[in-house]
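Quick question about two entries, pasted in order.
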Amino acid sequence: MILTTTAERTAAAAAEIARIGAGTVSTDPGLITKVSSDWSRMSPVLQEKVPPGRYLADAVVRPTVPEQVPALLAVAFEHGVPVTPRGAGTGNYGQATPFDGGIVLDLRSLDAITVNEGGGDVTVTAGAGARLTSVDRLARAAGRDIWIFPSTKSSTVGGFVGGGSAGTGTIEHGTTSDGYVVSATVAPMDGSGTMRRVSGAELTPYIHTYGVTGILVDVEIRTDPAREWAALYASFPSYAQLAAVHRSLLDLPQRPRLASGDEPPLVPTLPAPVALDPERYSLRVIAEASTVDEIAARVAAGGGAMVAALPDYAETDRLSGMSYNHPVWFFQRGNPDETWFHMESGGTPLWDAPDAVRAAYDGPVHLHLELFGHGPGAMIVARYTGEADVLAGIPRLEAAGMGIHSPHQWYVDRNVELAIETARVTDPKGLLNPGKLTATPPVDTRVNIGVR
């Protein structure tokens, strides 16, 4: 009997996977609906294109030990079944949506964590499904800070490496591509039923490529000696004063772990543990303890006021949860009668010429600032009037001297040529996360948010 549909081939593969014990298999409709979408609902563009329920897997497979991953991939390869990897589903671009049905590979049970002590650098090796909250907790217990973690700290480490980029720790350590990953175990989709350890330059096609080149089974990440961190809250009467202090934080003897700023319209919906004045510009910093007094002095000299200094590591996690695109989500949730979108950007005009940045879009435009090691980044928040208007703002922002990354598309947008070259070997049938890797995407996928 020839199985012609993806659903039929998936049913046959799922039965074999269950028979050989290569993972827990489910075809429960509720679970399939849940794991077939992510947080792309943040983008009104993607909400129109990939709303929950439009694209569904045919089965969910959850491996419980690393060896099951290559085994189940070999079965899927034999049957020609697409496989879309997934962690906690906190991605925002539709990267974990199974456009061609098949299997959603739920990696959350691969959550073993080992702190690798002794010798030179202390690293942490974690299963792809380990939550960054757990990784960080065990690292801190061993006297270490992991280099970077995402603003959604409940994300899985495999999801962060495979689909994320920056977060808390980025000011000092850059992105997930800047030495954060020491090595990884990767399982290809080539029918071999094998997995191998990669390190150094070999890691490049597996970082931020959404699993199209191979499944990350575990990753080894870098740490620093643990420091004492404090959550600082300050406010300013003007954007210029906020920007001046924000940029000065790069000159601290120990750079902060995070530095976020918001204009007044974004402030009321922030879930802060202290009262924030909705008419003032908010600055929030995760600062090393020895720099707290210096930051407070700079805030005062810059015309601002300290709101709170909380020397509690748990409070730094809370503050981290109000960074990057989270303020956009809080703002959207707090203004349900209007539709807002955001554009990810970077460049010194955010400090020097914010009106030129705001002019890229009509109507009210709000800026959420972040600090990178090379300068400022921002989520530019504006009213949504259609995808064409969103995209039309990109060349205007670039003309103003800004770098842009669009969060309104799901295509691999980093090291694309290398990913394509790698996938020819590691995924010759094109079964890994189909629809995410192409040399000629039909939408703007430019990514350059560095200072220009």
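Here is the second entry:
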Amino acid sequence: MAKSNTPSLNYNCAFCKDNRDFDLPVQLIDDLVTGNVVLFAGAGISTEGSNVFPRSLYEEVEDTLGNPDPEAGFPETMSRFCRQPNGRSLLIRKIHERFKKVATIRETFLLATRFHQALATVFPLQLIVTTNWDDYFETECDAIPLVIPEDLAFWRLPGRKVLKIHGSINNLGSIVVTAEDYEQCHARLREGVLGSTLKTLLATRTVLYAGYSFRDPDFLQLLNLLRTEMGELMPAGYAITTDEASIGRIKKLALVPILTDATHFVEVVKGHLVEAGRMVLDQKYDMVAAAQEYLGEVHHNLAKQYDPRKQPALVFALAYQDGMLHAFDVIGTKRRSGYFSEAGAAQRMLGKYAELSACKLYEEQYHDVAYIDGFAAGLRFFIDVKQGSPIRLPAYYIYGLGSADQPPSLKEFEAMLPTVASKSPKAYAQAERMANALPDGVVIHHRAWL
């Protein structure tokens, strides 16, 4: 067991009061690194978390019923609500409106998705199972949703998958909410292809439960069946919880309880992966975003102040900046999948662009070479930038110079512009042709493909 390094708890803070110190199982980390972990996510890490709404969906529905049954569970209460005229339609509408409320206020949305956003950069975690209806794993973690049996035809698509066994808010008819729905869902899980896939995951992978109450009857029946069939050969399972009262229930299911906040758990895991050299700091993405904003202003000013028909070398400088801006776009967008969070991923992509640059140079496509140089510079920036260090962005570009010899400022760039013609006559001639072909008032731009 490795110890998490948790600072002293502030019990007056709604977000850090549950960030408890805990033992981090070494086997769990090893399984995660090798891609052998499947996450099972429940409502506690989504809209039903204690900090999102003042009252749960169950409490809201229960209050609308006359003489509510305190012994009734979630499915039974929902079934009772649906027995009124147009009951199911009203319930689905209530659920839909609840999600709309979350999306309306940024603070509420961030509270509902804080776990998902933390999880996004954990690149080895590629398989998720959830009973939640929200689409946060899709929007925040770039996961492909698998909701109906036909979706399994796309299982081999690259990237994260999320198996949504209780339906999706994006397919309102698929939502599992009443006792009758749970019975039908159990039958599908017991006999159908989605259930077979779920059973295979549970029987062959280490399962990490987060935000799950272990009260869904359909899933518990399936889990108990698997445990009966596999006995001691059932893979290890871990359950993250902030509820000390649930520890006994978790242990009865032969799972290892981890008493801490789920988002905090993810952050601690990422810290271990960074220390082990397997992952880069999330803060790199913030530094890329800041650099992109700065470069966008430089790019706009350069295009506005100079005429490429008078300074043809500007054609390459703008293409270079387009390439770097597009590289930053790719890095920022792929944060949700964790692609660049894997140590070495950006370096591997940099090698591919070096090969592509050589091909374009051979073909005398100098405008493309400048664009690739910019894209490569964006990748190198992500690789080299360090938290707390000054951000030095190679924003200016003279064709034919190596990355280490590029002008560090606008003043040096202006002084070096006339040298392009002598350093690369063929490239300069191409830039002149492109600049002279530009209509009045049109800024030359390199599109995001080659």
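Reply: The chain has two domains: 2-275, 283-436. Residues 283-436 form one domain. Hope that helps.
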